[in-house]
């Protein structure tokens, strides 16, 4: 959907994996984009191709500090998302989710503009219902190694709904399920990037635990489409809305598919399962489907093939550099 030229959109975490794709999409739709990022897990290279765009601006800033800018809409994505990254400095992770949400809500309140929160399926914890609907309140350990992320995101959701109740603000909350695609960080420990990089290098593919735990993976373009549709939906559609691809599979199946698509000779090995690792996860997306007319379009094989092509390019370039 095209934007009027005056539409200025803030994307926090805009140089991360999802944020960089979102910035691209919003520019393509005709908006002006202000990308705010402290480069904790995101990189300038993710948005380098946008730097010359006359409607794009990049600002280095940490959302745990107040931000005074003038915009028409806010997408709040700033937060490390992979377990390796968010557990690196767990206190900062909670601060980013909670204080970052307060600051961005304060900004949205002053400007009287719509604000969308990138929440997560992790707020369901290790779910006791399957698939997960938005009514489910979750099964989260409040004091474990994943809690900084899970509880931080839960508190951010609370803040969004309290700002709506207390100040009548237009808010949107998306609960994003596992998403993959080009510009995932190669070393962030997430399963799709780990398996692809291991397969391309001919290294062992590391399945944690027995590999029978399940996840459902959404291709990044589909996810971005869902976020933009949610932002553009009528004010009464606040969410929380699950956004993800319901196609569920085990980590063993994912490992085998990755080996097949890369033509790799890598062997599968098993490593210990991390603490509090959810056993199964699959979104029920009937609400997003009914309210936004949204369903993911990209089959896993196609999305994985594009992601493999991205990592092939990246590894060739970086390994080429090393050998010079
Ligand atoms: P990412 O780590 O690639 O991107 C996060 C971005 O936020 C990075 O660019 C990072 O530098 C920035 N950031 C972190 N702390 C910040 C701070 N204090 N101030 C400013 N910028 C900060 O992760 P992603 O996968 O792109 O995730 C984006 C958002 O979507 C996150 O909020 C994450 O919780 C949510 N999400 C992602 C997934 C997924 O599968 N990728 C699933 C559920 C939710
Ligand atoms: N804030 C901001 N930019 C603004 C307005 C507010 O970063 O344009 C921050 C500010 O630091 C404040 C927070 O948002 O602490 C919450 O703002 P709110 O108005 O809700 O509360 P208060 O100012 O009363 O703390
Ligand atoms: N996983 C795995 N091997 C890896 C990385 C992850 O088997 O090299 C497993 C992990 O234990 C989890 C699933 O893959 O069960 C998804 O992990 P990821 O960190 O990508 O996402 P999350 O656990 O946050 O859903």
UniProtKB/TrEMBL annotation:
<dbReference type="Pfam" id="PF01370">
    <property type="entry name" value="Epimerase"/>
</dbReference>
<keyword id="KW-0210">Decarboxylase</keyword>
<protein>
    <submittedName>
        <fullName>NAD-dependent dehydratase</fullName>
    </submittedName>
</protein>
<dbReference type="GO" id="GO:0005737">
    <property type="term" value="C:cytoplasm"/>
</dbReference>
<dbReference type="GO" id="GO:0042732">
    <property type="term" value="P:D-xylose metabolic process"/>
</dbReference>
<keyword id="KW-0963">Cytoplasm</keyword>
<dbReference type="InterPro" id="IPR044516">
    <property type="entry name" value="UXS-like"/>
</dbReference>
<dbReference type="GO" id="GO:0070403">
    <property type="term" value="F:NAD+ binding"/>
</dbReference>
<dbReference type="GO" id="GO:0048040">
    <property type="term" value="F:UDP-glucuronate decarboxylase activity"/>
</dbReference>
<keyword id="KW-0456">Lyase</keyword>
<dbReference type="GO" id="GO:0033320">
    <property type="term" value="P:UDP-D-xylose biosynthetic process"/>
</dbReference>
<feature type="domain" description="NAD-dependent epimerase/dehydratase">
    <location>
        <begin position="9"/>
        <end position="242"/>
    </location>
</feature>
<dbReference type="InterPro" id="IPR001509">
    <property type="entry name" value="Epimerase_deHydtase"/>
</dbReference>
<keyword id="KW-0520">NAD</keyword>
<dbReference type="InterPro" id="IPR036291">
    <property type="entry name" value="NAD(P)-bd_dom_sf"/>
</dbReference>
